[in-house]
Design a protein that fits this description.
about 160 residues, alpha/beta
C-alpha cells in the first residue's frame, strides 16, 4: 500500500510517500514542490496542480492524507492557502484517491507524542522513524511525511482492533 501525505502551501507544498507491507513501512521519502518561480497566484496554482498530478501519476498512492487548515491572524494568507488546498484536493479527486485530513495538532501528537511539538521535533522524529539521510529539504517535506505516517498509524491501529 502506498500513502501520500501532503502539507499544502501556495509557495511550497510538501509531499511525503510511505510504502507499506502489512503493518511494516518498507520505504519512505519526501520532497517539496516549489512554485515560487511563478509571480501570480493563478500561475502558482496551475504549477502546483500539474506538479502534484505528476507525483500522483508516478507513484499511484492508495490513500492521500492532507493537513487540514488551521486558523491564523492573517486572513489573506488563509484564503491563499485555501486556494492551494483546493487545487490539491482537485488533483486527488481527479485520480480517484481517497482523501483523509488531519489537523497539525493531530499529526504532531501522532508522530512526536505532543500536539504542541515544534517543526524541529517533527523533523527529528521522522528522521528517527525512517532513517532518512540529512537533506536540505524544507520542513514542509518532513511535515508531509509525518502526515502520511499519521494515516498509516491510524490504519494500523484500526486493523489491530
Amino acid at each position: 500500500m502506498m500513502i501520500v501525505g501532503i502539507d499544502p502551501g501556495s509557495r511550497y507544498c510538501g509531499f511525503g510517500l510511505i510504502q507499506t507491507e502489512g503493518i511494516k513501512v518498507v520505504a519512505a521519502g519526501c520532497q517539496v514542490i516549489d512554485v515560487t518561480r511563478e509571480n501570480s497566484l493563478g500561475a502558482r496554482l496551475r504549477l502546483l496542480h500539474s506538479s502534484i498530478t505528476d507525483v500522483l501519476e508516478e507513484y499511484k498512492p492508495d490513500y492521500a492524507a492532507v493537513e487540514s487548515m488551521f486558523f491564523q491572524k492573517h486572513i489573506k494568507s488563509i484564503f491563499t492557502l485555501g486556494h492551494a488546498r483546493g487545487v490539491i484536493l482537485l488533483a486527488l479527486a481527479e485520480q480517484n484517491i481517497p482523501i483523509v485530513e488531519y489537523s497539525p495538532r493531530e499529526v504532531k501528537k501522532a508522530v512526536v507524542g505532543n500536539g504542541n511539538a515544534t517543526k524541529a521535533q517533527v523533523r527529528y522524529m521522522i528522521h528517527q522513524l525512517y532513517g532518512l539521510k540529512e537533506s536540505e529539504n524544507r520542513d514542509d517535506a518532513y511535515d508531509a511525511l509525518a502526515i502520511a505516517t499519521t494515516h498509516f498509524n491510524r490504519i494500523k491501529w484500526n486493523r489491530s482492533k
